[in-house]
Each structure stands twice: as structure tokens, then as C-alpha cells.
């Protein structure tokens, strides 16, 4: 009887380990193909997204439809918004990677911004009235952080094919395309770098809500 109990315990632990491995693999597939979760580390997208928010990001929204002006997108800024990094060593990189995957540690290469210009657009700031213009039309930016101007400095760019012009909603604190005007690429981000569209805030509990996809309206 004792031998049978020990065997049962071993089989039970093996089943638990197998279930955990299967759950982990299924979660990894879902997050790499359909829906992922990202940690918001900064105030650059306030008031829409707050530091510490965790957002669900759809990886499939742009598989059939293009990125639209006004979309909030999550993208990989490696080589553009952030320089290439040789890493911190295999062990520390692995630990950081696990923390990022679990949503506890921000990924310094991943950004979330609003698309203000798509291929062919001319984005300019600011007009005589102090407004952002897209293709010569003033834009009603109702999403801006209270008290922020559309931009503290002037710019006038035309967006080439395959790229996007991106800006944060909290313009005074946002590192975005404006900050890289003098860099290679001129602050424009390749559409291939877009990971997906955030469609819901899932943490903290009091912040759970859907994120509506809105176009940028002309005045």
C-alpha cells in the first residue's frame, strides 16, 4: 500500500508539471500570434494610458487592414527610438525577459504612440492658430493632455511609403517622432515595426476598460 501511494504521488506531480508546461506553451502561442500584454512605463500617453497600466494588444488588427491615422499603436523602437543594445549578459537578460513577458518589467524597446501621419501625409506644426495640420487641414486633438500644446517646436514632414509619424498624447513629456527629426530616418517608424493595437486596459482593476479606435478628425 505504501508503494502504491508513492507511485500515485509521483504520477500526480508529473501531471501537474505537464499541465503547467502545456499551459505555458499555449499562453506563449496566444501572446505571439493573437493577443499580448504590455506594461506602460511612462506618462507619454496620458490621459489615455497611465504609468503602470497593463494593456492587451491585438497582434491581428493590421493583418487585414492598414494602420490608420489616429490609431494608437505599440511598436518596436529598436534602432530608431532606442539604439541597438549589446545586452546585460545572458543571465540578467533572461531574468529581464521573463519579467517583461509577465508584465512586471517595462520593455525599454517597446513604445506606444498615436499615429498622426501615414504614407503620403504632410504633417505640420504649428499653424498660425497653433494647431497641428495634416495635409493642410487643422486637426481637432481632443485627446491631448490638458494644458499641452500640439508641439513646443515647429516641424514640417512628408511621410514616405512604408513609414509612420508618431506622437504621444502628453506632448510635453513624450519622446516621439519629433525628438528624432535630426536622426537617421527623421523620426519616421517603419510599418514593419508595429506590433499591434492596444484594445483594452486590464490592470489595475479600477482601470479596466476598452480602448476605442478613433480616427483623427479634421476641424
From TrEMBL:
It is a single-pass type II membrane protein. It is an enzyme of class 3 (hydrolase). InterPro entries: LexA/Signal_pep-like_sf, Pept_S26A_signal_pept_1, Peptidase_S26. Its EC number is 3.4.21.89. It catalyses: Cleavage of hydrophobic, N-terminal signal or leader sequences from secreted and periplasmic proteins. Signal peptide: none annotated. It is found in: Cell membrane; Membrane. GO terms for molecular function: signal peptidase activity. Keywords: Hydrolase, Protease. Residues 16-203 form the Peptidase S26 domain. The keyword Repressor does not apply. It comes from the Bacteria. SUPFAM superfamilies: LexA/Signal peptidase. It holds the Pfam family Peptidase_S26. Belongs to the peptidase S26 family. This is Signal peptidase I. It comes from Arthrobacter silviterrae.
